[in-house]
Amino acid sequence: MTFHQNAPGEIRAIHEAGELGPDLVPVHANTVSDRELAWMAEAGMAISATPQAEVAATRSVSVLRRAIAHGVTLSVGVDTLAVLPIDLLGQIRLAHILLQHTDAQAMHDAGRIAAALAGEAKDERS
């Protein structure tokens, strides 16, 4: 069963009620904490991401990489069919691009991109 998960703490409340299970698939899940993702992984749950809707609504997409890191399965869907195209392949492509962006931002923040570029420049001078 899918359900829109938008408010912080919803997964915690379902966990505390003892109802988390592989038959529940939260849609969006942008507000889940890392602890909630760990509970979801333990319960064998997946998340249904709707990348274009997330970007259009200016929601964080950090849950994509965090879910993967916790072992939560990702599925991709299309939300708001009256507004967005029914293009599942496009949603998958966008999810991939968003994951690449998230990874590149993390590398940049850690100084790894600048270090790699400095190494390349040094190699070219040698």
UniProtKB/TrEMBL annotation:
It comes from Microtetraspora malaysiensis. This is Amidohydrolase-related domain-containing protein. It comes from the Bacteria.
